[in-house]
Structure formats: C-alpha cells, structure tokens
Amino acid sequence: MIQQLESLKIIPVVAIKQAEESVPLADALIAGGLPVAEVTLRTAAGLDAIAQLAKVDNFLIGAGTVHSVDDAKQVADAGAKFVVTPGFNPKTVQWCLDNDMPIFPGCSSPTDLEMALEFGLQVVKFFPAERIGGIPMLKALQGPYGNIRFIPTGGINTDNIAEYLALPSVVACGGSWMVKADMIEAGEFDQITSITKKALEVC
What we know:
The chain is α/β, with parallel strands linked by helices. The protein has helices at 2-8, 22-32, 46-53, 69-78, 90-98, 110-118, 134-142, 161-165, 181-185, 189-201; strands at residues 10-14, 36-40, 60-64, 82-85, 103-107, 123-126, 149-152, 173-175. Strand 3 (60-64), helix 4 and strand 4 form a beta-alpha-beta unit.
C-alpha cells in the first residue's frame, strides 16, 4: 500500500455530493494517471460513492474524514482499502489495526506522533499541512521522528507539491485542487483529467 501510494505521489481528496458522479470521476482520474481517491464522509453520498468506486477495476479507494470506529466499520464494509482521519482517535486507530485496515491518522504535533509510535504506525497524515508550518515543520520533525513518514494534506497545490515530495519523509501528498466539487457537479470530467495530468507533470 505504501509503495503504491509513493508511486502515485498524489492522493485526490474528494467530496462527492451525488453517488452517480463516482464512476465518471474515477474514469477521469484514471485517464489523468491517478487511479486513486480518498473520498471523504463530509457528504451524505460519501459512503455510497466509496461502495461504487470499490468496484472499479484497478482503482485504489480510501475513505477520509473518518471520525469513529462506526465510521471505520462502515467504510470497510463499503470496500475502502485505507482509512484517513483528520486527527488521532486511539479507538479508531486500534480498530483499524485489529482488522488489518491501513490507517493514516491526522497528526499535527509531536504529541500526536508519540501516539503514532505507541501504536506502531509508520505513516501518518500531516494535517492541515500549510497551516501548521508546512515544509519547515516537516523538516523539523524529521530529526526526532525519522522513523515516521508523512502524507501532507491541506493547502497543497501545484506551486508547492514538488517541494513537499522532495522530502524523504513524504510518501505522497493529499490534495483537492484537481477534483473540486464544482467541477464534479458540473460534469467537467475532461477538465479533471487535464488538471490531473498537469499535477503529475510538476511532481
């Protein structure tokens, strides 16, 4: 899983309002070179969207904005292959570990990273990346936490993603600029493909 995400470099973070938009979105991302998405539970359609995307061949689907064990159980049943959380919820992390579900909990401080070490995690989400110090903060954390790697998310775009990915501690970056909700709602899937290709070109 980690090697796959590292090779993809970008994890599109998506909020889908209509489940029927899921497969066309997957097709657009695949055409753009990114057969992966983190679908958040921020909308009522999130769970159904995950279930539909789990059936798309050669597409890696994860679930984001997972807040509880119940959320984790639901996305696992829907077919999600990994879980991403905004913060560090020990109960959710433990359930995922007990059930062989890869989880990348949100970490924003050394205290969070100490908990990650306690649970034996090797990769965490660094969120909200730009708001909590961005690249300088990640470089500062590399010293005492050299055995942990990060998926920075929050404020990542084409202007800064290459610099993030250049850090040895970064596995991949999460971002939503190529899958904005208004583009999905408008059915602008060709544009999503185009933006996705351009995003990969700068990585």
